[in-house]
Amino acid sequence: MSAASRFDVIIVGGGPAGLTAALYSARAKMKTLLIEGSAIGGRMAEAWEIENYPGFTEAIHGYDLGQKMFEQANKFGVEHAQTSVIGIKIDGTDKTVTTGIGDYIAPAVIIAGGSERRKLGVPGEKELTGRGVSFCATCDGPFFRDKVVAVIGGGNGALNEATHISHFASKVYVIHRRDSMRATKVLQDKAFADPKISFIWDTEVKAVEGADAVERLKLKNVKTGAESVLELQGVFIAVGLVPNTDYLKGLVDIDPYGAVITNDKMETNSPGIYAAGDVRANSVRQVVTAAGDGATAAIYAQKYISEK
Ligand code: NAP
């Protein structure tokens, strides 16, 4: 078996937190490896319009912002591995990161693996995913041209999905389990002003049904108990995020929601292991704060390495 490659800093995740950490590490002349399992940009790449990242007076597509961050980090010599991390082992100051394509060793590891979309867990959701059930309006919007769709959820994610899919669909229902939303007012105002979007309040989805593709939702009003059926062709599920931390259990402290606990230096309880972005407990899950976390983690990782 070939010897594992050695780096100063290994970064897990290629979203805004990981890409910024990579930029800061490589620019500080740390030998830096960025490991990404899927697309550069992470969940940011799915955002149709980002209008709150400083410096861009016109909204920028998340994919484009991810590519720019990637190019900027690459200018300073970041190395890449496209693979998934299976586990991390600690041996003194060495951390061995085991992936699908081999092991990598470094004294400092920055966990920036982001989060996954939460599932509703109702009958039909899994079976009809890709056949009318989607978790990404930016990716799948054009498939729903002139169709009736629903977006489930009441957060920023749901209203972003709804206002994006309304460019394509003939009708968009936002179905929320309460009678008020946690989405920011600016997104609520945009959705309320959209003539194609209607809201169904206090309502839970009990099942997604259809023979080969989505045909209807079974709904229940949580206040009255009344059950109803909504005929449609598409369902976008936007009910929050779950941090990607399964491979970290037992290695670093994790909070009850599955997020990595850090201090304000992005240090975990395990020396030399940092966390940044959505994967971190109490993250406000913004591109700009993920980038800030990534920079902070990289700066303290350099300090850790120089003191060793
Ligand atoms: P979120 O803010 O956690 O909202 C999740 C929504 O789904 C809530 O309305 C919640 O209802 C609902 N929900 C959760 N579990 C459910 C279930 N089992 N059945 C039905 N409804 C359920 O998640 P998000 O909207 O994905 O946003 C995640 C984070 O990313 C947030 O911090 C958000 O601010 C950020 N984000 C920011 C932007 C932006 O434009 N700046 C865009 C997208 C996302 P309750 O309200 O009743 O709990």
CATH topology of the largest domain: FAD/NAD(P)-binding domain
What radius of gyration results from the CA coordinates?
Answer: 21 Å
Bound molecules: NADP nicotinamide-adenine-dinucleotide phosphate
Broad structural category: alpha/beta
- Main sheet? 5 strands, parallel
**CATH architecture annotation of the largest domain:** 3-Layer(bba) Sandwich
Name of the CATH homologous superfamily of the largest domain? FAD/NAD(P)-binding domain
Shape: elongated
Cα distance, first to last residue? 29 Å
Query: According to CATH, what is the class of the largest domain?
Result: Alpha Beta
What's the β-strand tally? 19
Low-confidence stretches: none
Count of distinct structural domains: 2
Write the topology of this structure:
Elements: E1 5-6, E2 9-12, H1 16-27, E3 32-36, H2 62-74, E4 79-82, E5 85-91, E6 94-99, E7 102-106, E8 108-111, E9 115-117, E10 133-134, H3 137-140, E11 148-152, H4 156-165, E12 171-175, H5 185-192, E13 197-200, E14 203-209, E15 216-221, E16 227-231, E17 234-237, E18 241-243, E19 273-275, H6 287-307
Helix pairs in contact: 1-2, 1-6, 4-5
Bound molecules: NADP nicotinamide-adenine-dinucleotide phosphate.
Subunit structure: Homodimer.
GO molecular function, one term: thioredoxin-disulfide reductase (NADPH) activity
Keywords: Disulfide bond, FAD, Flavoprotein, NADP, Oxidoreductase, Redox-active center
